[in-house]
Specification:
With 487 residues, the chain is an alpha/beta fold. The protein is built from 19 helices and 21 strands. A seven-stranded mixed beta sheet has the order 17-18-16-15-19-20-21, with helices on both faces. Helix 15 packs across helix 16. The protein starts with a strand and ends with a helix.
Length: 487
């Protein structure tokens, strides 16, 4: 008998509702609803339009019912961001976008109270200004009245689940992105909360991925015309959902989850928290079954996406295929950027910032669209190599294959460059890694699938995988030496 589950997958620019049907051997996907996710800037603050997003969730439920129905629901989203609920259960304000400028300088503020080394020892989380901890420090410093009104903080997938069920929880994988979890006890860190004056009562109870949170509320069922079905707390952080679906049943793999962000890492049984991991600023994120995703956050396809938007604002519209062709037409290794330089994080004129970075680092300054795109592509591939070397150093393991998963698998140029830059075979797929992981956890929750290794075997059998082999090793090695001079 085929089981059907409904996965909602939210990214930084859009969301989908997808029915996953499992016949005992393979998972097939049926996208029933797709919608944009458009940040809204008001008064200098960038918000997520969460009420419209919840409207789209209900539209997805209706369309999924009309497409044959479903047995459960799971939701995954980006990390760190949250909504605040008051004592009456109402949302205080729209969640604020992680690219908002309110966290600028907040790492420095945090380190005045707890040194960086101790914060990392407690949490094992990569330092990024967008982390929840630094958002809360900003709130407490600049808008304390908002925090005083809050009864509960709910991360984005937990907030949507609350809107569907009325139940409040903090799923572990999404909570672990916050830099508020004690990595040893797997609970909210009393030391961090006490030090920054954040009440522990603000946080919902932690639950493991695969927990049945509750059923759709009567109000949602009536509005959408559906019967109550369970809402399952899958790996709420989209990165961990993607890792769950890496098509490598033995669990010994390096992965590159390629999308707006690039997440490069591996899965380990226990966190690695030491001077070496702090030095390379690598993160230990909670995963399915008590595992840890050891990974590095890298700015990814955002550089290409935002460049494309900038050219569109200037009146010229390129497809992604156009940009790839223009990049391929240019000579290789003219110049590089550090993709993770802070100037590339905000919305705006990425092409102009690429030129400025190259100018200030004494390199050739790219002028044409193709030159800028070639610089971005090659710089990303070089950053992947640098991260891969640090990952191997940190774990003491070698990885003959890099699994590229997610939407970036469609970018054949970047996949090919990644193989050449890292000197490793790249296996690309599944494209819908996050959705596959979401569905797999729902199916494991009721024992339809018995284990994570079985889930990964099923994902491999259900997906089309592409293979890329390294090329031009000597040329890439010489160019890598040049890249290291500017990072």
């Amino acid at each position: 008998m085929t089981e059907r589950v409904l996965a909602f997958d939210f990214g930084a620019s859009g969301g989908r509702a997808i029915i996953g049907s499992f016949d005992g051997k393979k998972i097939t996907l049926n996208e029933v609803h797709r919608f944009s996710n458009d940040p809204v800037q008001v008064g200098g603050t960038v918000y997520w339009d969460v009420l419209r997003l919840f409207y789209e969730i209900k539209q997805g439920i209706v369309k999924a019912k009309l497409a044959g129905g479903f047995d459960s629901i799971g939701i995954d989203t980006w990390g760190v961001d949250f909504g605040l609920i008051d004592k009456e259960g109402c949302l205080i304000e729209n969640p604020i976008h992680y690219r908002d400028k309110r966290t600028v300088g907040m790492i420095g503020e945090a380190e005045k109270i707890i040194p960086r080394e101790r914060l990392y020892e407690l949490t094992g989380i990569q330092f990024m200004e967008l982390n929840t901890l630094f958002q809360l420090i900003s709130l407490k410093k600049n808008r304390p009245h908002v925090l005083e009104r809050a009864d509960k903080l709910l991360f984005m997938p937990d907030l949507f689940a609350y809107m569907l069920t009325g139940k409040k929880c903090a799923e572990y994988s999404i909570a672990s992105t916050s830099q508020l979890i004690d990595i040893k006890t797997r609970t909210w860190s009393a030391e961090i909360l006490d030090a920054y004056g954040i009440p522990e009562s603000l946080f919902a109870p932690l639950v493991e991925p695969g927990t049945v949170l509750g059923e759709l509320s009567p109000e949602v069922c009536e509005e959408c015309g559906v019967d109550p079905v369970p809402v399952i707390s899958v790996c709420g952080h989209d990165t961990q959902s993607a890792i769950t679906s890496v098509p490598c049943p033995d669990g010994d793999f390096a992965f590159l989850s390629s999308g707006t962000w690039s997440l490069f890492g591996t899965e380990i049984e226990k966190p690695i928290v030491n001077e070496g991991s702090l030095k390379i600023n690598i993160t230990n994120e909670g995963g399915y079954g008590g595992t840890t995703g050891l990974l590095k956050n890298i700015i990814g396809l955002w550089l290409i996406q935002e460049s494309r938007r900038q050219w569109k604002r200037q009146g010229v519209e390129y497809s992604y295929a156009d940009l790839e062709k223009l990049a391929l037409a240019e000579r290789s290794f003219k110049c590089f950027i550090d993709p993770d330089a802070p100037e590339f994080v905000p919305h705006g004129d990425i092409p102009g910032r690429v030129r400025e970075f190259c100018k200030k680092t004494g390199q050739y300054v790219p002028e044409t669209v193709g030159e800028i795109m070639r610089c971005i592509y090659e710089s990303l591939a070089m950053k992947y190599r640098l991260t891969f070397e640090k990952l191997r150093e940190c774990t003491g393991r070698d990885y003959p294959i890099i699994h590229v998963i997610g939407g970036g698998t469609k970018d054949t140029l970047l996949c090919s460059m990644t193989a050449s830059s890292c000197g490793r075979t790249v296996k690309a797929g599944p494209i819908e890694a996050t959705v596959m992981g979401n569905i797999a956890v729902q199916l494991m929750s009721d024992n339809t699938i018995s284990s994570i290794s079985e889930a990964r075997r099923i994902v491999a059998d259900s997906s089309e995988l592409a293979t890329y082999e390294p090329k031009d090793a000597e040329a890439w090695a010489q160019a890598y030496a040049d890249f290291l001079k500017i990072v």
